[in-house]
Amino acid sequence: MMQVGDRRALGETDRRIARLIQFGTIAEVDPAQARIRVSLGGEAVSGWVPWVAGRAGDVRVFSAPSVGEQVMLLSPSGNSGQGVALLGLYSGAGQPPASEAGVTRVELPEGVSLEIRDGAVSLAAPGGLRITGDVTVEGDVVADGVSLKNHRHGGIARGGALTDPPAS
């Protein structure tokens, strides 16, 4: 027959096992400390826990998560104080930005997007794009429909005179 102490120990073990892996949503974000608090249903909210970043060594990636984003909280021994949050679970509130195999797409709320599809890279940056360093292009550059390689200039005069603007 099981004793009261045995039942308590078994209950504690069951509780810890149930808390090893929990799903929740982000309740608060502290970007400066790279920590979040996770709402685990009802009134239950975790303490501040780190989130798993893509990289955190010589190569580092930072992308602060959003309040309401779904996460998986992994808690060694069922202790959420030692937990770590796995981000990036698609849910009703956060759907994938692409749905085709072979497409990689990153979207930001400001309208910035990066897409890799069929060997081509597309970048949308409504706020502008700044490149620091030299740029080497092997191929044509087209700006507003005008080819850098194939455009023609009118008004050419030999010597030091300037040409007319490119003809489209």
TrEMBL record:
Top-rank taxon, per record: Bacteria
Domain Gp5/Type VI secretion system Vgr protein OB-fold: 24-90
Pfam families: Apex, Phage_base_V
Coiled-coil ranges per UniProt: none
InterPro entries per the UniProt record, alphabetical: Gp5/Vgr_OB (IPR006531), GpV-like_apex (IPR044033), GpV/Gp45 (IPR013046), Vgr_OB-fold_dom_sf (IPR037026)
Record-given protein name: Phage baseplate assembly protein V
Native source organism of the sequence: Paracoccus homiensis
Species classification: Bacteria, Pseudomonadati, Pseudomonadota, Alphaproteobacteria, Rhodobacterales
